Amino acid sequence: MSAARRLRAGLRGWGGVGAMGVACALTATFVLLPLRDAPLDGSAGTGGQGLTRGTYAKADDCKDADAWKQSPGPSSDEGGRTVAAIKKRGYLVVGVDQNSYRWGYRDPNSESDSADLEGFDIDLAHRIADEIVGGDPKKNIRFKAVPTNQRIPAIKNGQVDMVVRTMTISCQRLKDVAFSAPYFTTGQQVLAPRSSSIDGYDDSLARKKICTAATSTAYEKLKADQEHGDLVSSADISTTVPNQLDCLVRLQLGEVDAVVTDGALAASQAAQDPTVALKGRPFTTDYYGVAMKKDAQDLVRRVNQVLEDYRDSGWQQSYDKWLAPTLGKDPAKSRPPTPDHR
Fold first, then answer.
1. How far is it, in rounded angstroms, from Cα 263 to Cα 242?
2. Global model pTM greater than 0.90
3. How far does Cα 209 stand from its chain's mean position?
């Protein structure tokens, strides 16, 4: 199938990624707060005090598969400076995606005039706001659309209190931000046209152009594997984009041959466009976490307490609603590990 035909096919009905992007752009200014450089008053710019980090793995011995173990234990204490400032302000500011189908997006077919953000990540963000701030669910949270490559800057600059945006916990990122315990398990996977000769993450990627999001875990993995000889040297990994969804658009346009991203995201994108498919199995094990400022340890602990409760009541319901159609009814492979706080 030609690139033009793939694009036209992908733009039919819900499969129109480009159409969804336009719809999101038109509504964003009315609902989402714009990113800015100045920190919010008394919010993400403050840090907790008097709390022990309580890590489970030393930072200098960090391995990505165990990076999540550096998150401190849960706490219901709301006396820390960051949590207290958020409660006083009266709302939580959360960096999210508005273009990831079933994770954080606006349904163009929604009967609602507001076309509110919805999805698995959005459910979690609302749960955190309800637990920490309380009050009216329509007033206790404010969303900011954050591109993939701006997630860490948005946190460090105090533009958001946290990011809930399919963000993988990694040793490299722990140098800049703190993470909650995991809330989802996934892995890197290849997405390509169904008609492609690409079989997965193997030699079939030779002389193929691969797209990843800048600063993403996928790009770092491809770069490291190519340097170590674990990815065929002729694979072209030079194409990076600010937002991960842009890779799917480039794939539809025929500008790249494959996309590498989290399998959970790739499955949703394959559901949007039936002309593309997941190729091969996931070749890493990754965990999504809620990212926050490094010095906001009281907030990290409070979020970890929310996650403790959410794993027991809320996680399964959200999975069934948003992700079961693309990842399957059995969530065993997607469930996050349960931290051992002994």
1. 19
2. no
3. 24
